[in-house]
Amino acid sequence: MLFWLALALAQSLDEEAGFRGLALGESWAEAREASPRGWRVPWEPASPPDPEPELLSNAPCSGIGLASGGLSSDLRAADADLAWSVRFAPVVRWITGHVTVRENAVQGTRLDLDRDLGLRTEAGVDVEAAVEGPSLRFQMEVEELNGWGGHAARQTFNWNGTTFVVPSRIRDHSTSLWLLPMLTRKLLVSADRETWWGPAVGLEYPYVTVNVTTNRTKGSLEDWVHYLPYPALGMTGHLKLSDSFSLEGRLTGTYLPNVPVPFSEGGRLYVSSRPSLRLEVPLYYHLGPSADLSLAFTGETWSGRDHSVEDGNTLVLSSAGAWLGLTYRW
After folding, report:
1. What gap in Å lies between CA 150 and CA 11, rounded to an integer?
2. Model pTM?
3. Structural domain spans, the chain
4. What is the architecture of the domain spanning 84-329?
C-alpha cells in the first residue's frame, strides 16, 4: 500500500514540474508535444515562470537594464538602416573662361583660356564616399583634374610680372582640386524610399593652379589656393525609373564675399568666390545588389579672385563634362 501511495505522489509531482515519462512506442518529440509545459529530461528542472511585468519594474536597477537594452536595440536598428557606398569615376571636362594675373605694378593681361592659351580640356578622377539613412544622406566628393594646352601667341602679354613677346609658342598646364562635403535632408520620400528630394547644405574648397610659359621666355605658375572652405547650398533628388535604372541630380550654389584669410603674400591676402554653380546628373544602372554603373553629365561655373598688395589674380571658369563611374554598396 505504501509503495502505491509513493508512486502516485511522485507521478503527480513530476507532472506539475513538467516531467513525464515515455509511453510505449512514443517518441521524444511526441512526448514533448503532449506535455502541457513542454518536455524536459528528468534531470533538468523546469524553468521558473516568467516574472510579472510589475515585479520587473520594481526590481533593483531594472530601469538601467531596460534602458541599455533599448538603446542597443535602437543602435542596431539604426545601423541596419544605413547604406554605405564608394564611387570611382574617370572624368573629362571641356573648359572656357579667362584669367588675369598681376604682380606688383605690372598689370596682367586678360587671357582667354581657349583663344590665347589653347587650354580647352581637363581630365582626372572623381571619387565619392556616401552614407545614407531613411531621412539623411552625407557624401564627400573629391575631384582632381589636370589640363594641358598650347597656342601661338597672338599678342605680347603680361603674366605674373613677366612680359612675353611675339612671335612665340605658348605652353600651359592647369590643375584643380575640389572638395565637396554635402548633407542632404530628405523631405519628400516615396513609400518604398527609392524616390526622394530635399535641400542640401555643405562646403566647397577649391585648389587651382595655372602655369604659363613660352619657347622664348621662362614662365611661372600662379595659384588660387588660399581659400578656406566656404558654404554651399543646393538641392538633391533621386528618382527610381525601373528596377534596373535610377536617375539622380544635384545642383549647388556658392558665394563668398571679399574676405581676408590667414595668409600673406606681399601683405594681407583677400579672396572671393562670386556666385558659382555646380550641376551633376548621373544615370545609374544597377548591376546587382552591391554594384552600380553610372554615366553622369556635369556643368560648372566658378569665379575666383585672390589679391593683395603684391598680387591680383582673377580666374573665371565654365565647364561641361562627363564621367563614367563604378559604385560599390554595402
Report:
1. 103
2. 0.73
3. 2-75, 84-329
4. Beta Barrel (2.40)
